[in-house]
Design a protein that fits this description.
It is built from 14 helices and six strands. The chain is of the alpha+beta class and about 325 residues long. It folds into two domains: about 210 residues, Orthogonal Bundle (Endonuclease III, domain 1), CATH 1.10.340; about 110 residues, Nucleoside Triphosphate Pyrophosphohydrolase (Alpha-Beta Complex), CATH 3.90.79.10. It starts with a helix and ends with a helix. Adenine glycosylase active on G-A mispairs. MutY also corrects error-prone DNA synthesis past GO lesions which are due to the oxidatively damaged form of guanine: 7,8-dihydro-8-oxoguanine (8-oxo-dGTP).
């Protein structure tokens, strides 16, 4: 593998100088701005994450501002991005940084922040502080697996170690940020998961997968997670201009967010009077598919609900952080 180290790295860096994406967090070395972008872009496409990053930076331009915010404010600002544990961890990490007195500038220090793993720490460390470390994400796995023809599964202990070592081996001295961003952009726009642009790829002549017609087969990933389906019945209550919501507890898929009652929060007599708005609304999460039935309840008297529910004016629900599925329920309820 060593014979292609210089060619692989120099070609990628040359490609990046011409084709690299102009992203606002790349025009700064402010670790707060960079950290914020990395957390937002976990499981999120850049085109969607950009708007969120801009809104966060406008509302909380420094880490002290974010740390002083209420969790509900952060959750509401995060609304629509999904994976809400990221928002809770973001807020807690901001408080960690403020308590520390500065943004940690070592790999170990960055990894101690809530919600920061190996990849995110390496990305922040290289972009903000010039740390000599490769930030191995899905793009790295794909580009390296194809270029070197590696079929070791990327989600095994052996694969993780192999690709981390290979990425680090090709890391150019003093140019970690450009190298990491080059592979990231190359994988996102050139060596894409589906229909990669091999005909115009600058690495095509020396790419093993291209030579062996294995581009579509690499990288290899073992299927380990079984997706489960969960059925929910959600009831939007409209009573005297008000509706009822409660905050989801610890360990819940929507922890810290607000939702309407489900069937087990209501009496069967009350449920029987509900109007069905929409059936089997599909909502896909990482390891779960939710099929939700949306109902509208317009009772004559205020229903009795569990003690953790609160009654709010209908128009005030926009002040609370709610999951995407709730947004869809609201859109149906407004038309009824």
């Amino acid at each position: 593998m060593k014979q292609n180290i210089s060619l692989f790295t120099s070609t990628l860096l040359a490609w990046y100088r011409t084709n690299g994406r102009n992203l606002p967090w790349r025009n700064t070395q402010d670790p707060y701005a960079i950290w914020l972008s990395e957390i937002i872009l976990q499981q999120t496409r850049i085109v969607q994450g950009m708007d969120y990053w801009l809104r966060f930076m406008e509302k909380w331009p420094c880490v002290e501002d974010l740390a002083a915010a209420k969790e509900d404010e952060v959750m509401r600002m995060w609304q629509g991005l999904g994976y809400y544990s990221r928002a809770r961890n973001l807020h807690k990490a901001a408080q960690q940084i403020v308590a520390l007195g500065h943004f940690p500038n070592t790999l170990d220090g960055i990894k101690r922040l809530k919600g920061v793993g190996d990849y995110t720490a390496a990305a922040i460390g290289s972009f903000a502080f010039g740390l000599q470390v490769a930030s191995v994400d899905g793009n790295f796995y794909r580009v390296l697996a194809r270029y070197f023809g590696i079929d070791t599964p990327i989600n095994t202990t052996e694969g993780i170690k192999l690709f981390a070592a290979l990425a680090q081996e090709h890391l150019p001295q003093g140019a970690a940020a450009d190298y990491n961003q080059a592979v990231m952009d190359f994988g996102a726009t050139q060596c894409t998961p589906k229909s990669p642009q091999c005909e115009v790829c600058p690495l095509a002549e020396t790419c093993v997968a291209r030579r062996e017609a294995r581009v579509e087969q690499l990288p290899v990933k073992l299927k380990t997670v079984k997706v489960k389906t969960r059925h929910l019945a959600l009831y939007y209550i409209r009573w005297n201009g008000m509706t009822a919501i409660h905050k989801r507890g610890s360990g819940d898929i929507w922890q810290g967010l607000w939702t309407v009652p489900e069937a087990d929060h209501l009496t069967s007599d009350l449920c029987s009077t509900a109007i069905l708005l929409q059936k089997d609304v599909k909502h896909v999460l990482t390891h779960r598919i939710i099929l939700a039935d949306f109902y509208l309840l317009t009772p004559q008297q205020q229903p009795t609900l569990p003690s953790d529910f609160i009654w709010i004016k209908e128009e005030e629900i926009e002040n609370y952080g709610i999951p995407r599925l709730m947004e869809r329920l609201l859109s149906f309820s407004k038309g009824s």
